[in-house]
Amino acid sequence: MRKNYLLTPGPTPLPPQVCEAMARPIIHHRTPQFQAVLKEATEGLKYVYQTKGDVFILASSGTGAMEAAVVNLLSGGDTAITIQGGKFGERWTEICKSYGINTEIIDVEWGKAVLPGEIERRLKANPKIKAVFTTLCETSTGVVNDIAAIGKVVKDTFAALVVDAISGLGAIDLQTDAWFCDVVVSGSQKGLMLPPGLGFISVSQKAWKLIEGSRCPKYYFDLKVAKKALDKTDTPFTPVITLIIALCESLKMIKQDGLDNIFLRHKKMADATRAAMKAIGLDLFASTVASDVVTAVKVPQGIDGEKMVKTMRDTYGVIIAGGQAELKGKVFRIAHMGFIEEFDIIVGISCLEKVLAQMGYKFKLGAGVKAAEEVFLKG
Amino acid sequence: MRKNYLLTPGPTPLPPQVCEAMARPIIHHRTPQFQAVLKEATEGLKYVYQTKGDVFILASSGTGAMEAAVVNLLSGGDTAITIQGGKFGERWTEICKSYGINTEIIDVEWGKAVLPGEIERRLKANPKIKAVFTTLCETSTGVVNDIAAIGKVVKDTFAALVVDAISGLGAIDLQTDAWFCDVVVSGSQKGLMLPPGLGFISVSQKAWKLIEGSRCPKYYFDLKVAKKALDKTDTPFTPVITLIIALCESLKMIKQDGLDNIFLRHKKMADATRAAMKAIGLDLFASTVASDVVTAVKVPQGIDGEKMVKTMRDTYGVIIAGGQAELKGKVFRIAHMGFIEEFDIIVGISCLEKVLAQMGYKFKLGAGVKAAEEVFLKG
Question: Which end of chain A is more exposed for a tag (fewer CB within 10 A), N or C?
Fold first, then answer.
């Protein structure tokens, strides 16, 4: 007997309703039956995105949706701002470079959020900048950026504000329209509680104007073609039928709970996790605003971080994430996002305590769980 | 009560083993557990592809894999042959045009196969041609092309032979290595008996050389990056975990049956369907070699083809496909591919007879089913 507890920042655990939907017989995608599904999914996504604009469902991972943002908005030779404060911010730079887009890179120390004032300064210095590529939650560092403040800085310029909300959408607040986000990309395997395989992308009126002028080559990710199809409740190419049907199930759950309650649940879990880490004597990696979807924690001195994560997973079935790229072995990350609730967090902290104790780390056993319980008890 | 029978050329029905696998709790993709899955799936695909070369699993539909073929092999300004004998052949031309590739289009009358001699003539006339884009089974017309003969014509030239085997792989014979196919693309929702959402692409040694010289911009579909990841049993971006786990199930079934038996089953179902159409007095659309995965049939005079397909679907739950693009209303298409066997074909023919009779078409009721039974009885 071996029971698994998934506490990773994507994929997140699947609700039973989603598992059940995935197991259903397949339906054909060029039917009124699937059109009803596509309509329901698209409308539901607009609720989660907090937008009245267009939202498209792509047959790709989140990175495909990021590429769609770049190739639809820009042309080779254009200039865009990218913000490198973690692995996923760097991905924007990489995609831009692949398509011949010049990047004005804002280097941010890993663990810190970008300063909106710095974006403002760069935009003023170079009025040719066509897009600002940002990250809502930098999953690699556990830092959340202040998209609302960035939106205020970008909205009156020529540039489009593009947000990678792959980690975070449906889990923490992101007001696409009210915060002036022109393009928001996301994926299915995080706050939306589905397996990976769907990319999402929203497009504002300002973004559509940029799209009209884009000369980047594209076919599979061409949003103008996607728009024509969606206007007829259709998709340009075969959609990931099963995942879209499952999406309707998770959207139903999200609507039933309500976004505000969901954001509150995530905040509570993040608070509890952070309190627990402090009680165990561990330091957060995020030195500015820590995100409410994943907590990155510094591996204490004398502890082999990779071995710790591996033992939790292979011996006890509690799956958290290690560090990525330059943070490998230096941090571990506990997700509190999607279909995860307070007692899952208790399990994660308890297992962490067990393995740390076994590895000889000195702390008061039970202190982490107690600190988390105190946060949860306050309600 | 309403029971559905899916007889469409993608998606095809799902085996219960696949449905069960789709419903399982999700696992994380950066784990030894998923690495074992990825290895098993990749090895199984090589069996189905009949190749010892590389095969990659992409998080995309089949069209994404087609785009991957174009952007990895070629550079803007290159010239390639495309063959337009149906909607999917035309897609190669469209993708090439999107990336600034010049196309030497071989126009083939819809319903006919391309003549390998014509490809040979074009290759000789223009030695700069870098790729020949072909289609194994043109799903829109029900025609199968002679890829083995085309392979002989292309192999000693500079050009890469690229095959769209989205419809057909795992259902009819395609010998990637023995037929000198350099790049073969496919998708999950046809012969491989899965929901849509995975693209597959094989790469020969000859193709890798072309890939080295490609200057088309790319990121998400970059096969050199995919190769580096796969060498470490990994994927560059989040894979469609659930579908890859389900793929292992369908590959197990395919290996258990054996490719030769599977090809025989498809041939038998196609023969039976064609015999049934003839017995009902209907003509096939394919005027050369009709494919063994889907049969396209001309709608008889006086019958509203779209209404016929709609009635079969909405009144009786038997879902076949209508005509696409210029064939809309002029043909209907019955798939006999994937998890479909003889008695499913009997159901399809019986329902077709019922609706044709109701619509006033004159024929001997039961003649189609009888003709099919005769073919199946011969074994």
Answer: N
